[in-house]
């Protein structure tokens, strides 16, 4: 009687009885790793989205401050042309030492009231902006809820006909403080 051996790479049907406990644990571990990787990616994407949203807000808040200063400068210029006013192009901004944004000072500008207010002599001395829940405008109105953004302006004299305006927007996210600075030059166009 001859015995034959049959080798097969596939297990015979009577030897496959399902997963062992060890195989089940390994499968659950691999599945857990893949799911946690996906959740980690989603969480990181949401975090980056929040950072990007805050940076976009900071950019627009800085741009708004520059535009308010330009508007005040242009209003002063038009007043000189139309009404022969003796006010300078920087009247109410930084024409003299008493002005809120005089060279070396840090000031704030309120878009709603279009007012300039002295804050101090160093960055970080201005209060946080507030946002109206009805109009969504940013201002310093104490009846509106506080945001986590601070907007500060510093003006530097370059010449008799040129100034450099630096706007600093800072905000906190968790325990870290972020900052966005924009700098532009304005000129006396008369």
Task: Kindly describe this structure.
The chain has 1 helix and 7 strands, in the order αβββββββ. It is of the alpha+beta class and 190 residues long. The chain has a domain at 58-187. The N and C termini lie far apart (118 Å). The relative contact order is 0.13. The model has no long low-confidence stretch (mean pLDDT 88).
Structure, briefly:
The chain is an alpha+beta fold and 190 residues long. The protein has a domain at 58-187. The chain contains one helix and seven strands, in the order αβββββββ.
What are the salient characteristics of this protein?
single chain, 190 residues, alpha+beta, seven-stranded antiparallel β-sheet, 33% helix, elongated
Q: What are the secondary-structure elements, in order, as H or E?
A: HEEEEEEE
**What would the principal axes of the Cα set say about the shape?**
elongated
Radius of gyration: 32 Å
Biggest sheet layout:
7 strands, antiparallel
Number of contiguous helices = 1
């Amino acid at each position: 009687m001859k015995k034959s051996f049959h080798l097969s790479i596939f297990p015979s049907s009577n030897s496959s009885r399902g997963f062992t406990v060890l195989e089940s644990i390994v499968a659950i571990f691999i599945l857990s790793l893949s799911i946690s990787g996906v959740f980690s990616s989603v969480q990181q994407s949401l975090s980056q989205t929040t950072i990007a949203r805050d940076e976009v807000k900071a950019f627009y808040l800085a741009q708004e401050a520059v535009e308010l200063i330009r508007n005040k400068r242009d209003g002063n210029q038009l007043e000189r042309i139309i009404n022969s006013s003796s006010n300078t192009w920087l009247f109410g901004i930084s024409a003299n030492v008493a002005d809120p944004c005089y060279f070396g000072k840090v000031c704030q500008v309120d878009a709603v009231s279009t007012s300039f207010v002295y804050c101090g002599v160093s960055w970080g001395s201005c209060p946080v902006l507030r946002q109206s829940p009805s109009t969504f405008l940013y201002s310093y109105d104490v009846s509106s809820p506080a945001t986590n953004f601070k907007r500060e302006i510093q003006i530097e004299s370059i010449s008799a006909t040129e100034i450099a305006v630096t706007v600093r927007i800072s905000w906190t996210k968790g325990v870290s403080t972020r900052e966005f600075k924009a700098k532009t030059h304005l000129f006396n166009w008369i």
